[in-house]
Amino acid sequence: xxxLVESGGGLVQTGGSLRLSCAASGxxxxxxxxxxxxxxxxxxxxxxxxxxxxxGSTEYADSVKGRFTISSDNVxxxxxxxxxxxxxxxxxVYYCKDETFGSWGQGTQVTVSS
Length: 114
Fold this sequence. Notes:
Layout: E1 3-7, E2 10-13, E3 18-25, E4 33-39, E5 46-52, E6 58-60, E7 68-73, E8 78-83, E9 92-98, E10 103-104, E11 108-113
Parallel strand pairs: 2-11
Antiparallel strand pairs: 1-3, 3-8, 4-5, 4-9, 5-6, 7-8, 9-10, 9-11
């Protein structure tokens, strides 16, 4: 069974930093594509960043470029999202998703106070 578990969310002030983790299990971590998404009440879930295990390529939404960094630890089967210079508009529930199987984690809340 494919499982994704996010952690690392919390409350931070504007300009602060957080590191989110997405621990994966139930599938091979040799060739994966995992993405981070976020959602606020009343809005659609939006893509934030993704990483490919095949070649290490990454993509970012324009709104987070230069502030967020996605990375992975293939031994730990964990994908990270380093978030810096956080803004109140980054407040959301952050989810990770395995793009191969379409599985989602349960989400972790990030709140940035002004």
